[in-house]
Amino acid sequence: MEDEKTERKAINPYWVGGMFIAYCVRQGWLDQLGSGGKGTRWFPTEKGRKEMKEKFGIEL
After folding, report:
1. Maximum Cα–Cα distance for the chain, whole Å?
2. Are 45 and 29 in contact (CB under 8 A)?
């Protein structure tokens, strides 16, 4: 039987955070003001406040 080795690779936490923000915008949980670059701001919607708390325990 061969040893099963899985190579572990580090991830960029900023990429993960950016992908989560984009997901939240698509879900209608966050409104985005700006194009996504520097100076962009995100605001939680009422739906976002409720569902992010229920699904992830995130209180905004």
Report:
1. 55
2. yes
